[in-house]
UniProtKB/TrEMBL annotation:
Function: Involved in targeting and insertion of nascent membrane proteins into the cytoplasmic membrane. Binds to the hydrophobic signal sequence of the ribosome-nascent chain (RNC) as it emerges from the ribosomes. The SRP-RNC complex is then targeted to the cytoplasmic membrane where it interacts with the SRP receptor FtsY.
Domain statement: Composed of three domains: the N-terminal N domain, which is responsible for interactions with the ribosome, the central G domain, which binds GTP, and the C-terminal M domain, which binds the RNA and the signal sequence of the RNC.
Pfam families to which the protein is assigned, alphabetical: SRP54, SRP54_N, SRP_SPB
All residue ranges annotated as the AAA+ ATPase domain in the record: 100-301
InterPro entries: AAA+_ATPase, P-loop_NTPase, Signal_recog_part_SRP54_M_sf, Signal_recog_particl_SRP54_hlx, Signal_recog_particle_SRP54_M, SRP, SRP54, SRP54_GTPase_dom
Record's keyword terms, sorted: Cytoplasm, GTP-binding, Hydrolase, Nucleotide-binding, Ribonucleoprotein, RNA-binding, Signal recognition particle
Top-level taxonomy: Bacteria, Bacillati, Bacillota, Bacilli, Bacillales
UniProt domain SRP54-type proteins GTP-binding: residue ranges: 101-296
Protein name in the entry: Signal recognition particle protein
Organism: Paenibacillus sepulcri
Reaction catalysis annotation: GTP + H2O = GDP + phosphate + H(+)
Amino acid sequence: MAFEGLSNRLQNVFGKLRGKGKVSEEDVNEAMREVRLALLEADVNFKVVKDFIAKVKERAIGLEMAKSFTPGMVVVDIVNKELTELMGGTQSKLAKANKPPTVILMAGLQGAGKTTSSAKLAKMLQKSNHKPLLVAADIYRPAAIKQLQVLGEQIGVPVFTLGDQTSPVEIARSGLQHARDNGLDYVILDTAGRLHIDEALMDELRQVHEVTQPDEVLLVVDAMTGQEAVNVAQSFHSQLELTGVVLTKLDGDTRGGAALSVKAVTGCPIKFVATGEKIEPLEPFHPERMASRILGMGDMLSLIEKAQSSIDADKAAEMERKMRTAEFTFDDFLEQMEQVRKLGPLDQLMDMMPGMGKMKEMKNLKVDEKQINRVEAIVRSMNKDEKRKPEILNHSRRKRIAAGSGTTVADVNRLIKQFDDMRKMMKQFSSMMGPKGPKGGMK
Ligand code: GDP
């Protein structure tokens, strides 16, 4: 995961502090020396690191540590707040035009992920019931237009193009008109990238800017390039007023330097982050959540939001009812597993839970997707009656299921035992709760 190295190092530093009953000034200084090294190693801009450490020290030493019950936690809290501040404090939302369409100009160097991010942004808007239009204004990179068309088709968003013989300025102008004529409320301009920043590119972007008067100018930068991403952002920002940054490839093992330095160096906030090559909705960037994720305090809010958007509320309510009444069958079990799976790869989910990132590192907890596949195969090899009445699963049935699912009888036995235990627990729980809440009456 991105930030893994930084996250582990910071957690070690604070682990030591947390254990102390008293924290002296020397302890704080020592911890800050380590934090400084960790940040530099994560490729955070050196000036940013210097300012950051100075701010944390000032706040930490000013406090009367000895009087606090949890001095270590106080320091972690200060670092958490300062990290959040460093990344912009609060979430920077996407601008909205007073009169639609809202125009978003996407800029960036070739390969940063501009075309991919444009499609992800369109998907995000579409998900919140908007009608975006993608405009193919990159006429230089071979196949860029085709790439956008393919992505647009994949997500069901219209793509406006005039081929590669018309100027980007004209394409942008006509695209905007097309959106107005067709009642589309967001226009995403996928402009040309270059291998390096050059005058011709900037000129073209300025002209497109002039005719379209965008509400947002988002620069797409590749997090994997670390400080280089920050330099690119600074150059673009000095020539073309950016309104925000989209940081891509955060799925890779980026050390995190770009995410932590962009705002402080350029003054321009990160508005979105992108992970993966698949076209999923672009994720809004939340500085406070990112900070607590780096510090291993988990990102429960993102997890909950993810759950809310991927899990069917009616199904969840039905499941909850079944659990209460202990009517839970293997079918429900499978369905519940599928719902959890929709949330995404399990190890990514683990990273969002407090303390879990650390546990994974200690190898106490290995998330094994294969194991889950095996469980799924076993349940799928059961027939209807068996799923509903697990008690009929005798040895010959278990043997058949093992053969059908490519597992062993031991695997099947283990799963049935787990399921039985779970049902027993639910029965106990529901009898304890009774039909009207806890027995013994809390009310
Ligand atoms: P453009 O030249 O800036 O338009 O870049 P593209 O959108 O064509 O992306 C360049 C490459 O990076 C493609 O292979 C994309 O699939 C890949 N890519 C884009 N965004 C991400 C991301 O967030 N994560 C990963 N892993 N790959 C990405």
